[in-house]
Amino acid sequence: MDVWVAGAIFAVSYVAIATERFDRTLIALLGGLVLILIGVIDQHDAFAAIDFNVIFLLAGMMVIASALGRTGFFEWLGARAVHASRAEPFRLLVLLAIVTAVLSAFLDNVTTVVLMAPVALVTARRLDVSPYPFLISQIVASNIGGTATLIGDPPNILIGSAAGLDFVAFLVNLGPVVVLILAAYLVTLRFAFRGQLVVSADRREALLGTPPEQMIRDRRLLIQSLGVLGLVTVGFLFHAALGVEAATVALLGATLLLLISGLDPHDAFRDVEWSTLLFFVGLFILVQGIVHVGIIGGVVGWLASGSSQIGVVTIALVWVSAVASAIIDNIPYTATAIPIVQRLVADGLPAQPLWWALALGACLGGNLTLVGASANVVVANVAARAGYPIRFMQFFRHGVVVVIESLVISSVYLWLRYLV
Questions:
Q1: I want to staple 353 with a disulfide (CB 3.0 to 4.6 A). Which of 147, 152, 308, 314 is the partner?
Q2: Among the listed residues 273, 284, 274, the one whose alpha carbon sits nearest the alpha carbon of residue 28
Q3: Residue 336: which residues within 8 A CB-CB, separation 6 or more?
């Protein structure tokens, strides 16, 4: 009975989020709390399912981003990008997508979009074009770039821990296919947003005539903020060796910055996207409900029992992981799928193609829907707060093309490299 009840509540909540008749944060919280109220999952298990590493990582980076925003840093970075692209909007779109993908690989995609989404908004405003191509492409590029490394996307951290795979292993095995997928996406961009990126010659000339240095408003705070961000970045790269989680690094950085800068903490905390954080709280509980009753484990277990052929299982794992991650968020899905892959390996199937198939499917599938990955939700809420809400179906129409394209490339890559 609990299976049907949990499935129905999840489905209704998901449809309500997709149709956007109500605020997505309220729907996620209501769905999760109803599961607790009717006893499908008890409160202790529900709250234990909340990934506070994600919540506090976001909170810490939002405080740092708030400080950077006060300095004019995002305007300066946008102006530098405009000059580097000669104010040609498509070239600028590609440039920002590449920067986002690279940063996502070596910071992580959530941190990257916290920093880059304001740049996209500022840049579009200066060009006087729609911000949607820049915002949507940053979501997609962050998920693609984050796929390449151990720290780039949370599912990879889970997989690396379970399989004993390090940073170099991810980069060597997933880096090549990520470069191919990103290149294909940059070609797709040419056709996806044509007609939305037209800038007059007069505006281009005016933008190129404005020195980026004029955008900086507080040099002292800028130096302090960039210094702390640099330390936080180093902390992200070595947090495993230090024995601390990324959230601890981010919160420590935010606290240090508030102490040395003299910024009013109340002002900084007002800039935190609390709606985004509470959406994740509700979503984690909601997803834990269907994990708890065995729905997700049953689907993945069915996949595992469907064939003993490594080629069939590997390709199916990529596609099933992508669809499942797009629906329930890739973090809880990956946590559920890992024991299944471990069982397959214990039964004698080779480990390498299965782990890389899970990583590719879970990370790239996040580009299918607006709630498929943490980075998507962050950008969507930043955009909504700025007055440019990204609609669920608006993103899906773009994402479905990108995900199919990415999964086809991934399937061919896995087959040629590990299965032939």
A1: 314
A2: 284
A3: 291, 296, 297, 300
